């Protein structure tokens, strides 16, 4: 595990997979045409049916202080107003 980077800035943790299986490739191919959105995709595992939740969008990260930051999900079709705001505060 290491740090994840987005637009050259450190943001979150990330893990690296050495192998991408058939199920992962199918999922990535299914999400390829999605530019922005959230939903649930059916996934058929070994003998059971599961669901995979996804969210794909452009986020802007604003750091208020070392104890607060916000992520704004931006819609490219709107006038710059965020579609979703997530605030993280350390207490």
TrEMBL record:
Q: Which GO terms describe its biological process?
A: hydrotropism
Protein's recorded name: Protein MIZU-KUSSEI 1-like
Name a Pfam family for this protein. DUF617
**Segment forming the signal sequence:** none
NCBIfam families per the UniProt record, alphabetical: A_thal_3588
């Amino acid at each position: 595990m290491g740090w994840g980077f987005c637009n050259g800035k450190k943001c979150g943790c990330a893990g690296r997979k050495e192998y991408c299986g058939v199920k992962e490739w199918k999922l990535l191919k299914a999400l390829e045409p999605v530019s922005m959105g959230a939903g649930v995709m059916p996934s058929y595992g070994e003998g059971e049916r599961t669901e995979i939740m996804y969210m794909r969008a452009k986020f802007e990260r604003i750091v208020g202080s070392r104890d607060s930051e916000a992520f704004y999900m931006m819609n490219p079709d709107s006038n710059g107003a965020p579609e979703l705001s997530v605030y993280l505060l350390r207490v």
